[in-house]
Specification:
Number of helices: 13
Distance between the termini: 11 Å
Largest sheet: 2 strands, antiparallel
Structural class: mainly alpha
Helix content: 55-70%
C-alpha cells in the first residue's frame, strides 16, 4: 500500500515510541536491566510506563485525521470499517500470544493483551468520538475516569490480587487465559482497565480535533502545551487519592501519561512542523509509518529466538535469545546493565532493518 500524506510529527513520535517499546521489551537479561527500562513494580511511574499510553494516544490523534474524509460522520459503512479493523487487530494480538500454535493449546491462549487493548480502545473510542461533540466527549472522559475510580474502590482494593479488574477477568476468562508474568493470574491489559484506557485514546482524538480547527501552528503549540501541563498536574494531584499505576491503568495515570504524551507530541510538532528540522527524524519515521508491522516483527523474532534450542554443554540447553546475549554481549562486556541494554539496542536495529526493507519497497501494513 502506498503511503499517503501524513503528519510528520505524529509519525516520528509513533516511531520513537515503537523504538523505545522494543528496547524495553527485549533486554539481554531482565534481572539486570536498567531500572528506568522496567515498569514500576506497582504504584509509581518510570519512563517505560509511558510507552503503551503514548501509542494509544497516537492512535487517537491519527484517527481524527483519518476520519476527515468521512466528514467525521458515523455512517454504517464507517462503523463497519472501524470494527472490522478493531476485530483484525484483536485477532492479531491473540495470534501473537498463541504462536507457534503447536505447543499452546487453545485452553491456555491469552485472550487480552497489547494489540487487543489497542483494538478495543480504537473501536470504542472511535465510535464515541464520532457520536459526540468535543464538549460532550470531555464529559464522557470524566464519567469514565470517575466511574473506574468508583468501581475499584467499591468492589475491591488496589492490590494486585484484590482489585476488581482481576476478579472480573478471572470470572470472564478464567485463570488459564490470563497473563501470568507477575507470578499470578493478573492481566495488566484486563477487561475492566480498558475503560480508562479508552480515555487515553480520546485525549489523543480531542487533540487531533483541536489541531484540525486552526492553521495557526503557533496557537496549536501553545494550546497543546497548556493542555499537556494541565493533564500532568491533574494526574499528580489525583495521585494522592488514586495512585498512578500503569498495571491498573488508574485514572490518575491516564491524566499523567496523557499529559506527558501531549507534551512530547507538542515538542515533535514544534521541531518538525514549525521549525522544519527534519534531518534527525528519518530513522524514527521508518518505524512510525509501519508501526503494526514493526511491533509484530519484534514479537515474532523474540518468540522464534526463544524457541531455538542450543546445546551449551552435554546436559545444558539454552534458547537462542540467551545464546545471542551471552556470546555476543556478556562474553565480551560482562553480564551487566550495559551489555543487557546493548543487546536490546541490537535487537531493535534488526527489527528496524526488516521494517526498512518494507519501507524501501513502499509496502505499508494496514488493517
Amino acid at each position: 500500500m502506498k503511503m499517503k500524506n501524513r503528519l510528520l510529527s505524529l509519525d516520528v513520535f509513533r516511531g520513537f515510541t515503537i523504538c523505545f517499546m522494543i528496547i524495553v521489551n527485549t533486554p539481554g537479561d531482565w534481572s539486570i536491566a536498567y531500572e528506568p527500562l522496567k515498569h514500576a513494580a506497582w504504584h509509581g511511574f518510570t519512563p517505560t510506563d509511558l510507552v503503551f499510553p503514548s501509542f494509544v494516544f497516537i492512535t487517537g490523534v491519527s484517527s481524527w485525521f483519518s476520519f476527515k474524509s468521512y466528514n467525521h460522520t458515523l455512517t454504517s459503512a464507517l462503523f463497519m470499517k472501524i470494527w472490522k479493523r478493531a476485530f483484525i487487530i484483536f485477532l492479531l494480538g491473540v495470534g501473537l500470544y498463541a504462536f507457534p500454535f503447536y505447543n499452546k493449546p487453545i485452553s491456555n491462549w491469552r485472550i487480552l493483551g497489547v494489540l487487543q487493548r489497542i483494538a478495543l480502545c480504537y473501536g470504542v473510542g472511535a465510535t464515541l468520538g464520532l457520536l459526540f461533540k468535543p464538549k460532550q466527549l470531555i464529559g464522557v472522559c470524566v464519567a469514565l475516569l470517575l466511574g473506574y475510580w468508583g468501581i475499584l474502590t467499591a468492589f475491591g482494593d488496589l492490590t494486585m490480587q484484590g482489585n476488581a479488574g482481576q476478579k472480573l477477568d478471572l470470572w470472564l476468562f478464567g485463570d488459564s487465559h490470563l497473563y501470568h508474568g507477575e507470578g499470578i493470574a493478573f492481566d495488566p491489559e484486563g477487561f475492566l482497565s480498558t475503560m480508562p484506557s479508552i480515555v487515553t485514546y480520546l485525549i489523543g482524538y480531542l487533540i487531533g480535533g483541536f489541531m484540525g480547527t486552526t492553521d495557526d501552528k503557533e496557537k496549536i503549540m501553545r494550546t497543546l502545551s497548556i493542555i499537556g501541563m494541565a493533564l500532568v498536574v491533574g494526574g499528580l494531584i489525583w495521585n494522592f487519592a488514586f495512585p498512578i499505576n500503569k498495571k491498573l491503568w488508574t485514572s490518575s495515570y491516564v491524566l499523567f501519561a496523557g499529559g506527558l504524551s501531549t507534551l512530547i507530541f507538542t515538542l515533535c510538532y514544534y521541531i518538525l512542523d514549525i521549525k522544519k528540522v527534519y534531518e534527525w527524524s528519518h530513522f524514527f519515521r521508518i518505524f512510525g509509518t509501519n508501526a503494526i508491522l514493526a511491533y509484530m516483527v519484534s514479537e515474532l523474532l523474540i518468540i522464534i529466538l526463544e524457541l531455538m534450542k542450543i546445546n551449551e554443554a552435554p546436559d545444558i540447553v539454552i534458547n537462542g535469545h540467551d545464546a545471542f546475549y551471552r556470546y555476543f554481549f556478556a562474553l565480551w562486556l560482562g553480564s551487566n546493565n550495559f551489555s543487557s541494554f546493548l543487546f536490546a539496542i541490537a535487537f531493535m536495529m534488526i527489527c528496524w532493518l526488516v521494517v526498512y526493507i518494507f519501507y524501501r519497497r513502499g509496502i505499508f501494513l494496514k488493517v
